[in-house]
TrEMBL record:
Gene3D superfamilies: ABC transporter type 1, transmembrane domain (1.20.1560.10), P-loop containing nucleotide triphosphate hydrolases (3.40.50.300). The chain crosses the membrane at residues 20-42, 54-73, 132-152, 158-178, 242-264. SUPFAM superfamilies: ABC transporter transmembrane region, P-loop containing nucleoside triphosphate hydrolases. This is ABC transporter ATP-binding protein. It holds the Pfam family ABC_tran. The keyword Nucleotide-binding applies. InterPro entries: ABC1_TM_dom, ABC1_TM_sf, ABC_transporter-like_ATP-bd, ABC_transporter-like_CS, P-loop_NTPase, Type_1_exporter. It is found in: Cell membrane. GO terms for cellular component: plasma membrane. It is a multi-pass membrane protein.
Amino acid sequence: MSTGELLRRAVRRHRGRMIAGSLVLSLHQATEAAVPVAIGVFVDRAVSTGRFEPLLWCVLMMIVLFAVLSNAWKTGARQVVWAIEYETHLLRLEVAQRVLDPRGHRTGLRSGELLSIATSDAEKAALVMRGLSVGAAACTALIVSSVSLLLVDVPLGLGVLIGVPLLMLGIQALSPLLTRRTSSQQEAVAQTTALATDLVSGLRTLRGIGAQHNAAARYRRSSQDTLHATLRAASTNGLQDGVTTALSGLLLAAVAGVAGWFALHGRITIGELITVVGLAQFVAEPVGTLGYASQIIARARASAARLASVLSSSPVMLDGTSTAIDLRQPLLAMEGVSHGTLSSLTLVLQPGESVGVLCYDPRDADALLNVVAGRAPEHTGTVLVGGTALEELDVDVLRRTVLLERHETDLFEGTLRTNLLSETGLERVMTAAGAADLVEELDRPLADRGQALSGGQRQRIGLARALLAEPPLLVLHDPSTAVDAVTEELLAEGLAQERNGRTTLVLTSSPALLGKMDRVVVIADGAVVAEGIHSELAASDAVYQEAVLR
């Protein structure tokens, strides 16, 4: 999806309200342009003649004009605002759906950047409808003004008809620059937001290693870059406003001066002079509105480009169609798999087996997790899940069969109970996850991402949530890195009991967890180098001892 396609689709989705809103806003601008015409008629027909009947009709006409003017604005603005808000809502849902797609996405953007796009950019892109509607209304005002001036005096009308397009060309010349600088500013804001999100989530770790001052300096530099980008965009915006105001004033002065000269020589009446001066002064408003609409559309295009890059990003994994899963066969069978640092890896999990995997190189663990999660479509070798090739499986079936719980747990606003999603066996799995101390706090409110909880508490809540799901194959990545030794032992015992008879794969260096596994597989340089039970490996392999014994 391109930038233009996204903006055109936004207008099409709300074309009914857009048409209604634009027409009524155009009526508002037409009645505003008619006010100086009505005053001129009032002067020529009533004030100059001193007759009562024309005076009465002119007063009634002014009442009708202002009644239509005020109600048209409210009605038209309501339609356009509804369309903007609803389109913003739809765009946010689309971004959320794309980001949460189980197939993954190749945007390369961090959480903070995606958050900025889903909120700020979605709102700015939807404002294209405001720019188009007020732009259409401003054009209507200019047309009515020009026709009225032509009826008063043809040269005056032609002067406005020629001057206004030239004026608009001068204003539009700054739009590409404004679009570029606005886009740069929005990217800088998103990057700073992403950095702030990362720093907040890792604040405890940064303080632990004494790196908070370096992190603060990095954020300060990013914030300053954002400030400079914002100032550049604001200066361009101000330049466009200044050019618009200056050129509008020059046009007004020229039209008023010529009209005054015509009135002095009797070419037009006093009422017509008032009409011409009033219209010339009024013309500055729609011209300024057109400049404002140009700015809105420029900002909308910049935001739409960022939205389009997310919505059109390709998925990480292909979505198969097969739903065939045979739970009697190995739930995971990898043969000759190469991906990242993995090299011809073979690993088979029999039904009901619990297997621990120790990777001497963390990159091997990351590559293995990506393959198991289906996020490595470029891998070589075969990966079978329940006897079916992983890439042939429907993504929903794959996610119901294989649940991957990483050590960095994502929690959401609400309570601990709402984050756990299920009431069945809640206390049992909380105990199994070593989180019995949190059972009494299940209704405790959580802030964004559970920042009020410690790292160990978040890990245990994530493990409890994974256990509640009871997946056929549970894959855990370092589920005990943030807990103490006593809690780790309780967690290992609870996990072994809760997953007894179910297939479990645990990537860890914890001796407590590895000691509860049916067997342990050791991976070095991307391949299996040892296999056995924990006690045997710990007794016979010096490298293994150094990696796991504490």
